[in-house]
Amino acid sequence: MDIIVNGEKETGPPCTIAELVTRKGLAPGALVVELNQQIIQQGQWQAIELKAGDRLELLSFVGGG
Predict the structure, then answer these.
(1) Residue 27: which domain range?
(2) Which terminus of the chain has fewer Cβ atoms in its 10 Å neighbourhood, N or C?
């Protein structure tokens, strides 16, 4: 399955948003997910199956001073 993540084409097995986040080793607590120009709440990540051609933006927020 081909999807676009942060502007880059990625190929992998079908999965949910939650599975993709885990596979990429990202910290869910500091992550915002936009799927096809819609913000997806973290509580929905497990239920949303990604489809070929989906466009994801994964935005991590880092605190600091």
Answers:
(1) 2-60
(2) C
Tens digits of residue pLDDT in 4-56: 999 999 999 999 999 999 999 999 998 999 999 999 999 999 999 999 999 99
pTM score of the predicted model = 0.90
Q: Is residue 21 part of a domain?
A: yes
Integer Cα distance of 51 and 3 in angstroms:
7
Query: For the chain, what is the domain count?
Result: 1
Alpha helices by DSSP H, the chain: 17-23
User: Which residues, at least 6 apart from 23, have a Cβ–Cβ distance to it below 8 Å?
Assistant: 12, 15
* 65, part of any domain: no
